[in-house]
Write a structure and sequence with these properties.
The two termini are about 25 Å apart. The chain contains 3 helices and 2 strands; from the N terminus they run H-H-H-E-E. A two-stranded antiparallel ribbon has the order 1-2. The longest helix is centred in the first third of the chain and has 22 residues, at about 20-40. The chain has about 100 residues and is mainly alpha-helical. The chain is flat, with a radius of gyration of 23 Å.
């Protein structure tokens, strides 16, 4: 995958960024470099390799200490939403930002 200067302009517009031409060109080079790294990683054959739950598991046996999945805090939704400018049916209302 490779981005074009048009893609960078659209991304900048969506992010509400004003990029100078040299900044836009630098951003294009950096992002395409990232995509190049991802493409290189995709070419590696990982069939037969088990995913790791923790990176240290590659060099030593590790047992993850998991806690019980229980509620430990009281429900304070109403108290937390009192200062919100707009709430409807327990949800925060925010202005639309995507065109």
């Amino acid at each position: 995958m490779s981005l074009t200067s048009t893609d960078i302009a659209r991304i900048a517009n969506l992010a509400r960024l004003e990029l100078q031409p040299e900044e836009s060109e630098r951003m294009l080079t950096q992002l395409n470099g990232f995509f190049g790294i991802v493409e290189a990683m995709r070419t590696v054959d990982t069939s037969g390799i088990e995913p790791l739950a923790h990176p240290v598991a590659a060099i030593q046996d590790i047992t993850l200490r998991l806690r019980d999945d229980i509620v430990s805090e009281p429900d304070q939704r109403e108290a937390n939403q009192r200062s919100a400018p707009a709430v409807e049916r327990g949800l925060f209302l925010v202005p639309k930002v995507i065109e």
